[in-house]
Amino acid sequence: MAGVEDETLDRIMNELRTRADPSSREGMARYGIRTDRALGGSSLYFLRAMAKDLGRDHALALALWSTEVHEARMLATLVEDPKETTEEQMEAWVADFDSWDICDQCSSNVFSFTSRGWTKALEWSSREEEFVKRAGFALMAALAVHDKKAGDEQFDPFLSAIERESYDERNYVRKAVNWALRNIGKRNVALNASAIACAERVRAEGTKSGRWIASDALRELRSDAVQRRLAKHK
């Protein structure tokens, strides 16, 4: 079995290396993606198609992640089976995050579907490491979309965390805080009101980061498009 897995990993890595493109790495860098471990040439669209052919494979995901290659780690987030993702693995992977795209894809594709997603979102939101904290809020944003059965009250601690951490001026953190706030507020009418109230409190605090987070979120949450959609599903 191990031989088959090794053969699959070798085939994948050879394909990724064959597609390597230095010019596309330059484009990735312009979007703030760390490229010192990137090959370039394999878009997320391509990796999703590859993942569809491969199917869910926990062992392969771990092997891909261990290569430390950017595209391989992105593919790992697409083939990993969240039912087999352990808490130890979540902590190991989040500690490895060094680029916003890997952070966001892993949080959305894997962590939000695990049994520990809600707990880790809150835990990581109070951590100091930039991408760990971003993962906490990216996970909140993903859970607001993916967990259809969650009750409104489950989002109250998330809103408290958003309010608490809105002072953080680091770009990758504040954008994720804003993302979480907007996604929670677009879930339904009641949470829209709660998110707007949270945003108003954040804005009143007067921090530079908080004012941006709140103003941007309020613009969307109060927009006619969002209000019409929420009213339709009330």
* Fraction of residues in helix: over 70%
| N-C termini distance | 51 Å
The level 1 CATH classification of the largest domain is Mainly Alpha
> Sheet bearing the most strands, described?
none
Number of domains: 2
Total strand segments? 0
**Mean pLDDT score:** 95
- What's the architecture of the largest domain in CATH terms? Alpha Horseshoe
Runs with pLDDT <50, length 5+?
none
Provide the structure class: mainly alpha
The CATH topology of the largest domain, please?
A: Leucine-rich Repeat Variant
Q: Nearest-angstrom radius of gyration?
A: 19 Å
User: What is the 3D form?
Assistant: globular
Topology order in helix (H) and strand (E) letters: HHHHHHHHHHHHHH
- What percent strand? under 5%
List the total number of helices.
14
